[in-house]
Design brief:
The structure is a single chain. The protein is mainly α and 297 residues long. The chain contains 12 helices and no strands. Helix 1 (12-36) crosses helix 3, helix 1 (12-36) runs antiparallel to helix 9 and helix 5 crosses helix 7.
Length: 297
């Protein structure tokens, strides 16, 4: 069934729940990253999620399916979890969760651009305008980062760049999944991807593991990130990808900043400025145009 025919009741609940889970992930990763560091934070998150899902994969007798598609699934994991999670963990050590989540909303922007280059998706005038508008919103948002943009070690410029690297990887992952994993069960794709990310992050994590033992609070935060925001969330995401297509599934990033900013305000005393809201609207408008959501019959 195509995304145009699928009744909203069959995908909207998963869509909203996924946005809430991924919105909360910025809070949990921030709490863990300051004690673990970027690579260990990402590794703990994906490895825990992989350990949780593997027994379920065995119970559902889908291991033979993974044995057939393990190369594609594990490769996808480096792009949709390994690199992005490490990038976001780094970013959250230097900029707030609200700004990070808004930059995350550029995912469909890169998804549309990469699908145009790689899969030959049509990029008409409206979609090209959307790309330009979306990237303009990113530039405007970055121009007002507290303290200004600095590309020195630990500066906000590197944090913003890390977020954009993460969304670029998500964009590649969307086209990769559409091309190589379209008909693979979501649990197989998720579990294989997480193990691929875990292996890919193994050596950097070993080299960067913190000298001082992280607190129970940091472990609990990454436990929530692994169980709720990764294991459960990625099953929902790949199910959405399969049922509605990557273009609609990736638009969940439009809703993520709502939950991320709300949690940042409540638990971290962060401030959401009018400029951030305005730039977020520009980015969302651009991504809506670029992904083809606006202009469809």
């Amino acid at each position: 069934m195509s995304d145009r025919q699928l009744p909203w009741r069959e995908w909207v609940p998963d869509f909203v729940l996924l946005a809430a889970l991924w919105g909360s992930s910025f809070l949990f990763m921030r709490e863990g990253a300051h004690e673990f560091g970027p690579f260990p934070t990402a590794w703990v998150r994906v490895t825990l999620a992989a350990l949780i899902l593997t027994p379920v994969l065995v119970w559902r007798k889908e291991v033979p399916v993974l044995a057939v598609h393990w190369r594609q699934a594990m490769s996808a994991g480096v792009l949709n979890a390994g690199i992005p999670f490490a990038c976001y963990a780094y970013a959250l050590m230097h900029i707030n969760t609200g700004l990070t989540s808004i930059l995350n909303a550029t995912t469909p922007l890169f998804g549309a651009l990469i699908a145009w280059f790689w899969l030959g998706d049509k990029l008409n005038t409206t979609r090209a305008l959307g790309l330009a508008l979306g990237f303009t919103g990113v530039v405007l948002l970055a121009s007002d980062v507290p303290g200004g943009i600095s590309f020195k070690e630990g500066g906000s410029g590197l944090a913003v760049a890390a977020c954009l690297v993460a969304t670029f990887c998500y964009g590649i992952s969307g086209s990769f999944t559409k091309r190589y994993l379209q008909n693979v069960p979501s649990l197989v794709t998720t579990t294989g991807s997480l193990w691929g990310a875990s292996l890919g992050l193994g050596i950097p994590t070993l080299l960067a593991w913190p000298i001082e033992s992280p607190s129970l609070h940091a472990w609990a935060a990454l436990g929530m990130a692994g169980l709720m925001c990764t294991a459960w969330a990625y099953v929902l995401f790949f199910r959405l990808m399969t049922r509605t297509g990557p273009a609609r599934a990736m638009t969940v990033t439009y809703l993520i900043p709502v939950f991320a900013n709300l949690l940042g305000v409540i638990f971290l005393d962060e401030v959401v400025t009018h400029w951030m809201i305005g730039c977020a609207l520009v980015i969302v408008a651009g991504t809506a145009l670029a992904s083809g959501l606006v202009g469809r019959k």
